[in-house]
Amino acid sequence: MGEESSTSEGRKWEEDIYWTHFKSLHFFLSLPHHFHHQIAIPKKFTNNLREKLAESVALKGPSGATWNIGLTASGDTLLLKHGWEDFVADHSLKEDDFLVFKYNGDSRFDVLIFDPLSCCEKESLYFVRKCVHIEPESGCRTKRNVTEVTDGSFFNDVVGSTPSRKLRKDSTTMPIITEQSPQANGRISGAISNGKRGKSSTLGGCRSYFVSNRRPVTEEEIENTLQMALAASTENGLVVVMRPSHVYKGFFMGISSEWANAHLPRKSQDVILRVGQHTWSVKLYCRNEGGCGLMGGWKNFAAENFLEEFDACLFELDDDDTNDEIIMDVKIFRVVEEVVPSRLMTSSPPNSRMPSKHPRR
């Protein structure tokens, strides 16, 4: 009895060490008959890591591309759901395919995919690319119209403002228009969205951007979100209303010059963005002639926090004088509380020739 009890205690100790101290954890799934729309994570894995998993997780396939998948709870079961259909379709998954999930922390998984007949990996999935081939003059094809302004400058469209909005009756995308307001004191940053396409970052030779899967939002929801952010802000806080070039493509977030001059050093440097216990290193870029913003790392922050257009972020500086680095606490106010991960897309021309900068009409 004593030997059995000792063995049992030893095994429990080993299990506790595994789940609490190991950096990489694994589970596998053999795809059942009905797997196309959602699939359950093993309960033992869920029971041990439920508190560490965010509302959405990132699945990195064999190709290195990443899919953001929303989690849904059904009783004690945790389901991979929102975005799972895209992962299934892009990898041409079939019943009985064998998937090995490696958990790397921060709600991130690497996924290996095996053929059930050969018991070997599916070689073709190392070459999966999420590219949309477009005609040079047709623009990007997206699920819904995502608009933004580009005027050749990252800074000219950032002003201290109290936003007023006009809703186009023929569009589900609502422009947010900023007007100068001396009462705002540089604490609100916004932008004008008027249908012009913006710049995209590159990924493996393709231009990468995100397409929102969020439902259409109302003007009232946008206004309520902004008001909640303003109500939570202190005198030295900065409220930024997210625009497409912040969260979908381009990935540069301009900061009000007035607020930056009052609270930030006039030099480019790394800053820390902090949400709860999680931190991100982001590059603060400042120009000699004025104007500054967040880049280099901002894309990861926006993607990993599932930011959407019209969400409001409240930035407040950590006032701890013992810190040599700049730390900004960020509170996120979502227009829609339910997180539905955006889809990462890439676009490339149908052949290797780059389209003319000024195509003939």
Keywords:
single chain, 361 residues, alpha+beta, eight-stranded mixed sheet, seven-stranded mixed sheet, 7 helices, 21 strands, disordered C terminus
Summarize this structure briefly.
The protein has 361 residues and is α+β, with helices and mostly antiparallel strands. 18% of the residues lie in helices and 29% in strands. It is globular.
Poorly predicted spans: 131-185, 190-205, 348-361
Beta-strand portion reads 25-35%
Mean pLDDT level: 75
Distance between the termini: 87 Å
How helical, in percent, are the residues?
10-25%
- Oligomeric state: single chain
Biggest sheet features: 8 strands, mixed
Question: How does this model look, in words?
Answer:
The protein has 361 residues and is α+β, with helices and mostly antiparallel strands. Helices cover 18% and strands 29% of the residues. It has helices spanning 2-21, 43-49, 84-90, 219-232, 244-247, 257-263, 298-304; strands at 25-30, 39-40, 56-60, 66-74, 77-80, 98-103, 108-114, 131-133, 164-165, 176-177, 188-189, 201-203, 206-211, 238-241, 253-255, 269-275, 278-286, 292-295, 312-317, 326-333, 343-348. An 8-stranded mixed sheet has the order 11-14-19-20-16-17-18-15. Strands 1-6-7-3-4-5-2 form a 7-stranded mixed sheet. A 4-stranded mixed sheet has the order 8-21-13-12, with no helix packed on it. A hairpin with a 5-residue loop joins β3 (56-60) and β4 (66-74). The longest helix is centred in the first third of the chain and has 20 residues, at 2-21.
